[in-house]
Description:
The protein is mainly β. The protein is built from no helices and 11 strands.
Amino acid sequence: QVQLVESGGGSVQAxxxxxxxxxxxxxxxxxxxxxWYRQAPGKQRELVAVITSGSSTKYADSVKGRFTITGDNAKxxxxxxxxxxxxxxxxxxxxxxxxTIGINADVDAWGEGTLVTVSS
Length: 120
């Protein structure tokens, strides 16, 4: 029904930058919000950043001032620009989208995840 395809993960040294992308496709009536979560080894999945259809944004305190989330409504795509990366940013990053697929029919979709590794 709905697919999220992520790209842009990889390995970088501390202080470097990466840009993640996530494109939604399928039976989409509207997208209410899209965001990024991450899960480091041995830790719970946590919110990194989210952007609503009205372009409101929210960030985890740990990434404020370093990460920027933007969206392209025409392409059903969300981006996460990550600057000044730290080793503690190492994690699998998951795209999430709250999508309306029909009348009174919302789905919470997840991507498969993309690994970000930051070396010191």
